[in-house]
Amino acid sequence: MKKDIEIAHSTPLKRIDEVAAQLGIDSDNLEHYGKHIAKLPLSLIQPDKKGKLILVTAITATRAGIGKTTVSIGLALGLNAIGKKACVALREPSLGPCFGMKGGAAGGGYAQVLPMERINLHFTGDFHAITSAHNMIAALLDNYLYQHQKDGFGLKEVLWRRVLDVNDRSLRTIVTGLGPATNGITRQAGFDITPASELMAILCLAHDEKDLRRRIENIVLGYTYSGQPFTVRDLGVAGSIMVLLKDAIQPNLVQTTENTPAIVHGGPFANIAHGCNSLLATRMAMSHADYTITEAGFGADLGAEKFYNILCRKSGLVPDATVIVATAQGLKMHGGVPLEQIKEPNEEGLRAGLANLDRHVRNLQRFGQSVIVVFNHFAGDTQTEMELLGKHCQEQLGVPFVVNHAYAEGGKGAEAMARLVVDTIEHRPSQPQLDFTYNDDDPLTVKIEKVAKTVYGAASVTFAKSAQNRLALAERHGMGHFPVCIAKTQFSFSADATRYGAVSGFDLLIKDAVINAGAEMIVAIAGDILRMPGLPRDPQANHIEYVDGEIIGLS
């Protein structure tokens, strides 16, 4: 089979005007970024028209991932293949993983969004706009402190860090303002990766431009010596930041390998942020398609939990069904099979790993969701393994099961999955609903404990002193009603990345908390999770090349 990039290069693309027409959008409403990409103005969102919404999540991920994006795109292809009007809404890839571990995040095989190189790289400049806007706030804050120090103004604590869309461990902690006094005030600072930026979360949670500005103004940059929050509104620069984000707030329209519409917008990570594409992109798709497919990052304990408890809570969205993706390799990893052997047949190891799937399915059902298990097929998977999983889903879990062949066969290989999803939605016993893990008025510590115990399987939660102080500060300043966003490793239910399976009975350590007053959520830092990743020993950047006018090495 061809490599992903070879498939992408061999797929004839339609002009974006033709793709938009499939959604009933006239070309005059598009802001073109070349022949195959366009921005969609927010005026195209129709609040009264709401198609069906399907969330795609997964079991706990392997280092290579589980294939949620491939399944999400494949489901859109399959739905269109059986005559349904479907659109997929996805996050934009970050350059960090593209040049670090993964090499790309635009789907795979014959289930990709295109043009994949542009989507994986600079795309329409949304990430650059967010990075620039975030760092503009940092520069303006530092300048304000420098210019007003003689007036006696200062901040006891500066919370606002800089961001960069590159994995760079050397920038996690830095010192700024070194040298002569004209270089600014010397202080310890640092960088996070752009997907962890509060502006990224704000862009993805904003209802419209007015809401975007309100949230930007509410960003807490630091605290004065009297203990009062100092915000972007106090800095007086919200208008400048809006100018930098005026184009980035508009969702991006592209196409799949079968020329069906795809909306790609926003890109927060689910292990350090809330892990969903923009609310605006999802609403745009739901306005123009009968079925909208969206995904939430990493395993269901991270992305799906945050999709429900944060995005759905704040937006009123309720998925009509949730698809959970499993792979034989992932299940065998969770069954204790050594990583170098998970591609080999191992019935016993796969059976032992089913506990991870079971935990996720029960969690999703606890939210009130209709759940469908999708086996993402790889070339080396055996019929016995697929039958084992199907029988387990039917007899032990009582949930529908289907095999996805979209990677190798495109929409044709996803028709069975599409029909099962439609059938599940049409024959559900009642209207979809969501049962949140916690209430708005629960104390922040209780919210974290409820997620840790109910979703992760923790026995207890320990709060470090710094986390206790930050959570108390948030409540003291009227932010106790915010949802919580737990930043945690994606490789385990616990905060220990090496503990696979369905680990339970552990203590979850909350080391610190970050107040995101603009995004209106409190980020709790669990274990050793970092908001600026590092590069692996052999980064994908070593294998990406530009040869004879073509990019190779992206996947």
Enumerate how many helices there are, as a single number.
19
CATH superfamily of the largest domain: P-loop containing nucleotide triphosphate hydrolases
Strand content: 15-25%
Multimeric state: single chain
Helical content stands at: 25-40%
Task: Tell how many strands the DSSP assignment holds.
Answer: 25
Number of domains: 3
CATH class of the largest domain: Alpha Beta
Largest sheet: 12 strands, mixed
Q: Would you tell me which CATH topology of the largest domain applies?
A: Rossmann fold
Task: Indicate the overall shape.
Answer: globular
- N- to C-terminal distance: 14 Å
Helix and strand composition category = alpha/beta
Cα Rg = 23 Å
| Average pLDDT rating | 95
Low-confidence sequence ranges: none
Give the CATH architecture of the largest domain.
Answer: 3-Layer(aba) Sandwich
Description:
The protein has 555 residues and is an alpha/beta fold. The protein has 3 domains: 4-33 and 40-124 and 248-426, P-loop containing nucleotide triphosphate hydrolases (Rossmann fold), CATH 3.40.50.300; 126-245, Domain 2, N(10)-formyltetrahydrofolate synthetase (2-Layer Sandwich), CATH 3.30.1510.10; 444-526, Formyltetrahydrofolate synthetase, domain 3 (Roll), CATH 3.10.410.10. The chain is 36% helix and 19% strand. The chain contains 19 helices and 25 strands. The strands form 6 sheets. Strands 1, 2, 3, 4, 5, 6, 14, 15, 16, 17, 18 and 19 form a 12-stranded mixed beta sheet that branches. Strand 14 (252-256) and strand 15 (261-264) form a beta hairpin. The longest helix has 23 residues, at 126-148. The chain is globular, with a radius of gyration of 23 Å. The two termini are 14 Å apart.
